[in-house]
Amino acid sequence: MARVAFIGLGNMGGGMAANLAKAGHDVRAFDLSADALDRAKAAGCLPVDGAAAAVDGAEAVITMLPAGTHVEAVYTEAAIPNAAPGAILIDCSTIDVATARRVTEAATLKGLLAVDAPVSGGISAAAGGTLTFMVGGTEQSFERAEPFLQAMGKAVIHAGSSGAGQAAKICNNMLLGATMVATCEAFVLADKLGLNLQRFYDISSVSSGQSWSMTTYCPVPGVGPDTPADHDYQGGFAAALMLKDLRLALAAASEAGAATPMGARAAELYEQLAAEGQGSRDFSVVGQLLRAPAA
Ligand code: NAD
């Protein structure tokens, strides 16, 4: 088993680091939060007093941080200067494609291997070791990263070259944001047309309008499987994080010259939710914005 540095022990990273320790790795853990470090210790990791101390002597350096600025700072100040030659740097945060490519290039110039490896699956998948990883990097980097990612997930997929993992993640989440809005919209219309909502679910979930947002994550309380909608939209995937991912997708679309009108409309609605103070609720709460009668 290997020595692994884990930096960023929040909602996602806490569970992921615990699973690496459970798999027998020697996990040196660092976070700015003392509470997060205490939880990592209780989960079998060794807390250390800085990112550089975590990276020192590690075969793999894993980061799970809020955004690109945090990743770039940790890579520049701690990971790249302190990593052992040949170490693999694995960033699992959701960040912009340009930063992902930039930090990988900087690592490669120092003789290190690096991949972007963002995840699909929320806090429960991080705790349960059932995340899906989409990985961007060279074949050699992917092969080095894969065994560490396998210990934290149910699927590890090589998306392509550096940045491809982040590209896959933001395209997937833009699709998710748009289908969730469309699913909520269909339920609101069905309701106004006098349809029984469970009956509409029974029909649509086996018809051509079916999607993950309908069948697995139904946004209507009391309809379909148990979802955050049945718990007053608590837990699940925060609307603020959906907004973050939509903004990343729109910025990438603008740079690449891609038309994303559905993604742009979904982002507007999630902006409105955040402005109304609902950013910490599950993203399926977006349907509540659509209930008011059209002007
Ligand atoms: P979080 O805010 O709970 O955790 C981030 C952690 O990073 C915090 O504990 C913070 O103290 C720590 N941190 C920040 N700067 C640091 C630094 N310089 N050094 C050390 N630690 C530092 O966030 P999260 O929900 O765990 O999400 C992490 C990443 O995963 C984000 O990019 C997010 O978009 C992505 N993601 C989250 C989910 C989800 O459901 N929460 C799902 C998929 C992907």
TrEMBL record:
Protein name: 3-hydroxyisobutyrate dehydrogenase
Keywords on record: Branched-chain amino acid catabolism, NAD, Oxidoreductase
Record domain 3-hydroxyisobutyrate dehydrogenase-like NAD-binding: where: 163-286
Pathway stated in the Swiss-Prot or TrEMBL entry: Amino-acid degradation; L-valine degradation
Family from the record: Belongs to the HIBADH-related family.
Organism: Sphingomonas aerophila
Lineage of origin: Bacteria, Pseudomonadati, Pseudomonadota, Alphaproteobacteria, Sphingomonadales
GO term, biological process aspect, one: L-valine catabolic process
Reaction equations catalysed: 3-hydroxy-2-methylpropanoate + NAD(+) = 2-methyl-3-oxopropanoate + NADH + H(+)
Domain of life: Bacteria
Listed InterPro entries: 3-OH-isobutyrate_DH-rel_CS, 6-PGluconate_DH-like_C_sf, 6PGD_dom2, 6PGDH_NADP-bd, HIBADH, HIBADH-like_NADP-bd, HIBADH-related, NAD(P)-bd_dom_sf
Residue ranges occupied by any 6-phosphogluconate dehydrogenase NADP-binding domain in the UniProt entry: 3-160
Pfam families given in the database record: NAD_binding_11, NAD_binding_2
Active site: residue positions: 169
E.C. no: 1.1.1.31
